[in-house]
Each structure stands twice: as structure tokens, then as C-alpha cells.
Amino acid sequence: METHTESPGGSSAVEILRAWPEASICHGFIGRAGGVSTGAFASMNLSYWVGDDERSVDTNWERLRRAVPDLKLVARLNQVHGNVVHAATRDTAALRPPGDGLVTAEPGVMLGIFSADCVPILMVDSKRKIAGALHGGWRGVIADIADVGVRAMVQLGARASDIRAAMGPSIGQCCFEVDAELGERFGGEIEGAKKHTRAGRPGKAVIDLRAVVRDQLEHAGLTPANIASIGPCTRCAPDRFFSRRAAGGKTTGLQMSFVGFAA
Prior knowledge:
The protein is an alpha+beta fold. The chain has helices spanning 54-67, 138-142, 145-155, 180-189, 209-219; strands at residues 2-6, 14-18, 25-30, 74-75, 85-87, 101-104, 110-115, 119-125, 130-136, 164-167, 177-179, 197-199, 204-207, 227-229, 255-261.
């Protein structure tokens, strides 16, 4: 793992966590520092759909693109906490369809997903220059979005054994406490999830969401050595990353994770 901090124009630094060293892979998990948004959106909120001032979001994007010039064309989604994955091209990048995953085989098309506790998953097949980005909320994880995303990349020509995946900053087992009923659903509906679920307070369960996703990626054909986990628990590090759990369930800004191959 490499922590890479870039400072556009001498302003507050934009923190970007990266998983892979190759310059051809444009990717990163962006932190919340370095922008101009205020209040619950402070400061590098990149989402126009959470109630932030549009001019502030525009400025945040300008700062990010100065730090990462390859982010000229970013495909995005109307994220709905499911398992639908879309193929993005230069012609479709601006559409923002409902779904929670994107794949592309076109260099220059960057895939962006947003999160504030859910698991962002970035994937690459460097040999064939095919990329994928998934939003792994608990509903999407139960629906096995990892498998759907890997299959979508394979349909574009990738090989599962050559795909590398990185899970970014997201809520950890230390903080992902849910109702016991949901814990039972994980154990009953996801193969192997029981070993990543434990009892919490009375009526509660605690789930290691990234560990569940790791298992699903392996079941989808990725080799264990090709799966990385990057960054801290978002609820434990709300100064660096947006976390709705840390905000008591209130609306916050969203961090973006992105991946693609340079044109």
C-alpha cells in the first residue's frame, strides 16, 4: 500500500491512497481533506447529490483534477445499494444510470464510485487494460456484487486469475454493528460469512464486511495474493474519511474512489 498525498496549487493537500505502483493504472481512494466544502461536507466532498453547495463541489473537482490530470472523463452512477454493474464507454460515461458497479475496457474512461462507510472495491486486469469499480454496501454484498463485477470484467475480456482487487477505507468489524437478524442473514445467505460475524451487544451482531467481500472475490476466481485491503475503518477515522456512522446517521459528504487506465 502506498499513501500518496498531492497538494494542488499549494492549497490543503488532497489525500489519495493507492494500491498499485504502475503509472498506467490511474486509481485511488480519496480522503476528505483538501477541498472547500463546509459543515457536514467538509471538505473534499465530490458528490453533487447530497445537498452540498454546487459551487463548492465544482471547486473540489477542479482541485482534484489539478492533482490527478487523468480524471478528465469520469463515469458515475446513481448508486442504489444493489448489484447491477454497467459497462462504461466514452459515449455512455455521462449517463449516470442506476446501479452500483462499473466496468470499462476503454483507456481514458475513469470509473468513480462514492461511499461513506460502504466498501469501495477497485479492480484491474493490467494485461488487458480492463478496470472495474464496485460500491459494496451490505445489500450489495448480500447480492454478491463482487461476483457480478468480476463476471462483467470477464465479459469484456479479462481473466479472473489476472484481476487484482483493492478494498478501500470502509467501516471495520470494530464498528459495523447491526441487528442480530441482519447478522443471521449474512450467515445464512453468504457462503462462509458466519466466520466473519460475531455477537455484539444484546440483540446485535458485528460483521467484518471487508473479510466477507474478500471471500466473495476469491469465490469469483481471484487469487488471494491479488486482493488488498487499503486504509482504516472510516468510523474510526472521521477526520480523514467521511462516515455516516460517525455522524450519527446524518447526511455527510462522500469520498470518491476511482480507477481506469491512462489513455
